[in-house]
Amino acid sequence: xxxxxxxxxxxxxxxxxxxxxxxxxxxxxxxxxxxxxxxxxxxxxxxxxxxxxxxxxxxxxxxxxxxxxxxxxxxxxxxxxxxxxxxxxxxxxxxxxxxxxxxxxxxxxxxxxxxxxxxxxxxxxxxxxxxxxxxxxxxxxxxxxxxxxxxxxxxxxxxxxxxxxxxxxxxxxxxxxxxxxxxxxxxxxxxxxxxxxxxxxxxxxxxxxxxxxxxxxxxxxxxxxxxxxxxxxxxxxxxxxxxxxxxxxxxxxxxxxxxxxxxxxxxxxxxxxxxxxxxxxxxxxxxxxxxxxxxxxxxxxxxxxxxxxxxxxx
Length: 314
Hints:
The protein is an alpha/beta fold. Helices cover about 40% and strands about 15% of the residues. The strands form two sheets. A nine-stranded mixed sheet has the order 2-3-6-7-8-9-10-11-12. The protein is globular.
């Protein structure tokens, strides 16, 4: 992993898009390229014009590298004080991961938490794919009312080998599950993040049901879910990686949804299966399925709108 450093301009910034999703009013990001190197990641497509990539000499669509700002916590501390009359939920992070390997090297997750929580009025929503967040549960317990712990759950343990191909540097799914369970056992606030639920890997009814039951048992206050983001070349890269690793069936399922004709029923099925599981183990009032309808077939969109419990239309 090639680790590059780059000085960002912001610490805490408003995030209207994540506010619409019901996740947070503010965001903190500790870099522009995460070392987890997930094949389906859409961050490169979203940040492709960011000057950091040109400065470090890397393609935003490349792999094998990360771009991190070790000084982020200092700017976060200043911004946490500055927003005196406008405070709320801060998501750590929205485009990268504050507990990815390169972020861990600088202690960025904990340092950012300390910087934000030193000021009253802030709540932090943690989202990570790394079980190393559990190393900071001692600090989080001191502020348990102001921190929401979430680990991105992208499959069940029986799919660990497949997930290791598409999320090569993230914690194994079994370790993420264990970290969320530990958070609940310690009395921390938790939420579910089932995202992305890739076809052929995590979209079967029984897999969705296991994940929903798990986050329910972990005391999840809400359950967010989403189809894989088709933006950029992530689906193509994911399909190729799975095929090269010998997972032909999973590769075929991912490759199929690159076409709208397959994408639309994939999303429709995800919503229906999540609603069913939420009714069984929790309530659809706690479901937040984040849906961009632009790639839906007209008939599928109409079908979803007639039964859209828990759907957040974006």
